[in-house]
Amino acid sequence: MAMSNKLGLIVVTTGNKSEMSVGYATLYGDMNGGFNPIKDLYKSEVYRLARLRNVWKPQGALGPAGHVIPERIITRAPTAELRENQTDQDTLPPYDVLDRILERLVEREEPIAKIVEEGFDRETVMKVERMLNLAEYKRRQAAPGVKVTLKNFGRDRRYPIVNRFRDSGAPLSEPDRSLLKGGQAAAKSEAFDF
Question: Which ranges in the chain belong to alpha helices (H)?
Answer without folding.
Answer: 2-7, 17-22, 43-55, 71-75, 95-102, 112-117, 122-134, 136-139
